[in-house]
Amino acid sequence: MSLDQQLQPIESLLPRGPVRDQADAYYGRLFGWPLKWRGSQPFLVLENGICAVTMPTLDSGPVLARLASTGCQGPAILLSTPRGPRVAVLAETDGLIPSRAELPRNFDLLAWGSLLPLPVGSRRTGDDTDWLSAPDPQRRWLPSLSAVVSGIRPR
Q: Are strands 50-56 and 84-92 parallel, antiparallel or unpaired?
């Protein structure tokens, strides 16, 4: 399945109503994620044990496949960035955080108050975001950071 076939529009995930109310209800109350708003764009505040590993889209396949094969798949966001398209895999910090030197050069760890844009609605902006793997209300847990990092193959 290609990345385009896996993308899920957020309006199919959120209840009807104003976008901000929908996002607050869905991300904030249902999943308990801390949000910060900049205009009409919600951002996930990476704190309280939530982090994200970002990687080039082309490098995400093995990581996502490893998570799926172990039953640890979780939310993954396709981001448009100045560095090109990237995938951010949400995770729960679970102990020691790897240093920058321990990750391959194209991989980044976002945590400690970093902001990650969240997909909302069908509008297209310069900061496009789409769910590659949407959060599941039936499985609200996140994979551990160790599980995500274990899928990274050094170059």
A: antiparallel
3-state secondary structure of 77: strand
Question: Each residue of 73-96: pLDDT tens digit?
Answer: 999 999 998 889 999 999 999 877
DSSP state letters, 4-71: HHH-B-GGGTSPSS-HHHHHIIIIIIIT---EEEETTEEEEEE-TTEEEEEEEGGGHHHHHHHHHHTT
pTM confidence score: 0.83
Tens digit of pLDDT for each residue in 5-32? 344 444 445 544 577 888 888 999 999 9
pLDDT of residue 21: 86
| Cβ contact 78:90 at 8 Å | no
Those residues with Cβ within 8 angstroms of residue 6's Cβ, 6 or more apart along the chain or in another chain: 132, 133
Cα–Cα distance measured from residue 84 to residue 30, given in angstroms and rounded to the nearest whole number: 31
Report how far residue 137's alpha carbon sits from residue 141's, in angstroms, rounded to the nearest whole number. 9
